[in-house]
Structure to design on (389 residues):
């Protein structure tokens, strides 16, 4: 088969234990997720010749490979925040298509919540104070403040309201209510969101993602392995990646996320249009991330995100573009770099395996096209993956 001509499928997906997981380690969560993803695919781990991991230890993919008992001939340790896993999926798909690997495992595990409770770490107010960040951090420009500034800019320029942003949290919770694995499932209202404690103006607590423990794994494989799998393949149709800025002063427009570029590339390479997508998994560390990413992926025009989200469009039940069908980082789980969870949920939906939260076409069948779009840093990077069955 000529180099670059192999089709690539996601053949296995799984979550490790998520939510409140006090008595384990990040390495154990990696192993748990990896075993479950391989079992989901029905493939033996001896076939895995590629590994991608980030966020753990000093030499992430080397340490995780050793812990899992793997000796990969292709590795990736790209670390660009929450978009890491969509970017890694793009790299893995390219490597498999080119014949540099046959089966690549993407795996992640984190005890972010448990570590804080045990005093092993503190909350992440910034990513450090070296390099370009030295000009922002001393003035109290925290991670969440960057997102809050961007949201306020959108509100000023486009008339977006805090009630519209709150609707994103409300609809994420409605989806989480259908997911037995979600950490928070009790319904919330717009008033609940608005009346919560202020974290960084205009964000109150429920505008912000939860903090959990957890892990996930995704196995990508060349098309010739699909016949040996126990699950139906979900094909990688197109991918895109983009980096924008790290200094807020170098961000040309606070109302445009890097998904505007990564999404365009992914859709072009997949040969599909945004209006053909049947569900979206979008990184949602904060409500504004969902809104601006919807705009930049082309689901609505710039400045129309507020009106787009306020009528229940994002809900599994009754929504015309279900978004974050598991409840997202706002309600389901968020152990750190959550981008891998977006891919797991997209695949489960396309397979028709999402249980009570399953998105269905009018004829009752599972959807055929989905997009997963991860965001890293404070809109510093983006990776977008278009998937189809």
């Amino acid at each position: 088969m000529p180099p670059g001509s192999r089709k690539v499928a996601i053949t296995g997906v799984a979550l490790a234990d998520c939510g409140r997981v006090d008595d384990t380690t990040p390495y154990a969560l990696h192993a748990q997720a990896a075993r479950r993803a391989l079992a989901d695919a029905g493939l033996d781990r001896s076939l895995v010749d590629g590994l991608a991991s980030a966020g753990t230890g000093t030499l992430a993919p080397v340490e995780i490979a050793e812990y899992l008992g793997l000796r990969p001939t292709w590795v990736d340790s790209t670390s660009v925040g929450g978009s890491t896993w969509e970017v890694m999926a793009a790299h893995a798909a390219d490597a498999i298509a080119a014949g540099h690997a046959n089966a690549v495992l993407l795996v992640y595990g984190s005890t972010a919540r448990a570590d804080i409770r045990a005093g092993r770490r503190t909350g992440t107010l910034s990513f450090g104070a070296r390099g370009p960040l030295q000009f922002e951090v001393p003035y109290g420009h925290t991670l969440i403040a960057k997102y809050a500034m961007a949201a306020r800019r959108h509100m000023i320029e486009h008339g977006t309201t805090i009630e519209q942003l709150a609707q994103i949290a409300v609809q994420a919770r409605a989806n989480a209510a259908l997911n037995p694995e979600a950490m928070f499932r009790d319904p919330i209202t717009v008033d609940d969101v608005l009346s919560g404690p202020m974290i960084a103006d205009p964000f109150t607590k429920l505008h912000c993602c939860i903090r959990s423990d957890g892990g996930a794994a995704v196995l990508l494989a060349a098309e010739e392995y699909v016949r040996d799998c126990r699950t139906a393949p979900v094909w990688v149709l197109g991918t895109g990646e983009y980096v924008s800025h790290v200094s807020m002063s170098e961000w040309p427009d606070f109302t445009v996320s890097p998904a505007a570029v990564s999404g365009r590339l992914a859709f072009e390479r997949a040969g599909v249009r945004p209006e053909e997508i049947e569900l979206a998994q979008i990184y949602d560390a904060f409500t504004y991330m969902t809104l601006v990413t919807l705009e930049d992926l082309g689901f609505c025009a710039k400045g129309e995100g507020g009106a787009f989200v306020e009528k229940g469009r994002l809900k599994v039940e009754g929504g015309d573009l279900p978004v974050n069908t598991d409840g997202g980082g706002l309600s389901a789980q968020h152990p750190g770099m959550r981008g891998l969870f977006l891919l797991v949920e997209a695949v489960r939906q396309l397979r028709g395996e999402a249980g009570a939260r399953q998105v269905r076409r009018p004829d009752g069948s599972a959807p055929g096209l989905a997009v997963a779009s991860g965001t890293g840093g404070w809109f510093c990077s983006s990776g977008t993956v278009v998937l189809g069955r």
About this structure: The two ends are 22 Å apart (CA to CA). The mean pLDDT is 95. The longest strand covers residues 234-243. The chain is about 30% helix and 15% strand.
